[in-house]
# Entry
Amino acid sequence: MSGLGFHNRRSVQKRLGTFWNGARLVILLGPPGAGKGTQAKRIAGQYGLQHLSTGDMLRDNIRRDTELARKAKPLINRGELVPDDIVLGMVQERIAQSDCENGFILDGFPRTLQQAQGLEGICRLYKSKSITVLNMLVKPELLIQRLANRRICKRSGHIYNLVDHPPIRPGICDDDGSELIQRPDDAEAVIRERIRTYEQHICPVIDYYSVRGLLYEVNAITDPDTVMANIMKVLDAEDPAK
Ligand code: ADP
# Structure
């Protein structure tokens, strides 16, 4: 499945013209709780990339109560994956927007072999030249503890951890004073299912990028600054402008 059935290839190509010529694409792989969201935001800021999180896109659909959300919501609430065709269509729509022209970082996508294959079709279409895949490695026992203690600013999406990085005032975002919330799928039973689902599907994705020489492993066990420094070592060495 190419994932390009949603659009006529020619019309997309025409509309995009020279988009993406040499644009940088970073893919962040890692289980729920690896810290992908935190690092993706930092990488986006540091390298001028657009941050695209499929989880955020799906939650935005749920907030807007779209038709897509009606299919996706029960699956997300159970910790299962949303079908590949839905996610691929959503990603393809998003990256056709002009703010992705200079490159972007994918957080939470691809999660299955079919999604990786669909993304490759999209990249070929848009002539993306530089792809770096970072696989964030974390001890499994850390994941549940990180996710169960995660709180998120309702407005900005800023991520806190009640143990490692608590807000100054309980339940309130340090940056903008908004309420901190817990994601419904951060309930422990759902966390376990999300981790199981991730592990069930990710091995062929890792192999796919590994055989193409695009995969880099990043130690993600330590504090966010050290993890970012590890990531920057890889991205700076792979800088397409160098
Ligand atoms: P996490 O990776 O920490 O579980 P996300 O915010 O990335 O959190 O995803 C939340 C949920 O959204 C997932 O459990 C899954 O149901 C759905 N989802 C997100 N990205 C994808 C994807 N690429 N393919 C299928 N489902 C996805």
Summary: The pocket of adenosine-5'-diphosphate is lined by residues 32, 54-55, 58, 75-76, 79-82, 87, 108-109, 111, 115, 185, 194 (CB under 6 Å). The chain is about 50% helix and 15% strand.
